Amino acid sequence: MGSEGPSNVTTIHITGFKKFHGVSENPTETIVTNLRPFMEKKGFPAGLTLGSCTILETAGQGAVGQLYKVLQSAIGGKDQGPSRNSGQIVWVHFGVNSGAPRFAIEMQAVNEATFRCPDELGWKPQRVPIVPSDGSITRTRESKLPVREMTRLLRKMGYEVAPSDDAGRFVCNYVYYHSLRFAEQNGILSLFVHVPLFLTIDEEVQMNFAASLLEVLASIVH
């Protein structure tokens, strides 16, 4: 009894980034900060709830401890067992690609940190494995979500969006790699979405895109 209740709800946790070198106002900070009130006005898709909305430091190694605290918060204590697994948990990470003309849904991350400029804590690795125990810098981890199908559905809604197999080698890829690894270890899902600057696609369209992405996730995640 009660099997149709909250236990079957998919919980989406969201992250964005603060400013970084060359991007003084990160659109993902605005999107993630405003998403909950935006969705409350618009209405949440059936079967979906919005969990945490967190703004991450745009940094790799120096911020990894905080990243894992954020990731761990979504699954709670390890003693929760089946009660946690009765509803799916999905991480959606938003990052900006300042030169992009459209949205991109990232299919994978690579075990390589090669930063074109120092991150916000001054770290500038070159050809360093993100997780040394995972082996080579050519090792990849893929999202378990159907990225091409999601892209198709979002295009039908009128958005300029494409699947991508290259999340770069900067902080976005660094966070995504850790998140995909954490997701695999904990039986949850992870996705990374690159957005353009608001100068390229305005804030209203980007907020609606984020809401539509949640709708698509609600329709495909069970």
Which features would summarize this protein structure in a list?
single chain; 222 residues; six-stranded mixed sheet
This entry's quaternary arrangement is single chain
- Terminal CA distance reads 19 Å
Compressed to H and E, one letter per element, the order equals EHEHHEEEEHEHEH
Q: Label the overall shape.
A: globular
Average pLDDT, all residues: 91
Structural class: alpha/beta
Q: List low-pLDDT spans.
A: 1-6, 78-85
Q: Give the radius of gyration.
A: 17 Å
Strand order in the largest sheet: 2-1-3-8-4-7
Strand element count: 8
| % residues in beta strands | 15-25%
Number of helices: 6
Question: What's the story with the biggest beta sheet?
Answer: 6 strands, mixed
Question: Percent range for helical residues?
Answer: 25-40%
Question: If you had to describe this structure to a student in words, what would you say it looks like?
Answer:
With 222 residues, the protein is an alpha/beta fold. Helix content is 33%, strand content 21%. The strands form 2 sheets. It has a 6-stranded mixed sheet, sandwiched between helices. Strand 1, helix 1 (27-42) and strand 2 (48-56) form a beta-alpha-beta unit. Helix 1 (27-42) packs across helix 6 (203-220) and helix 2 runs parallel beside helix 5.
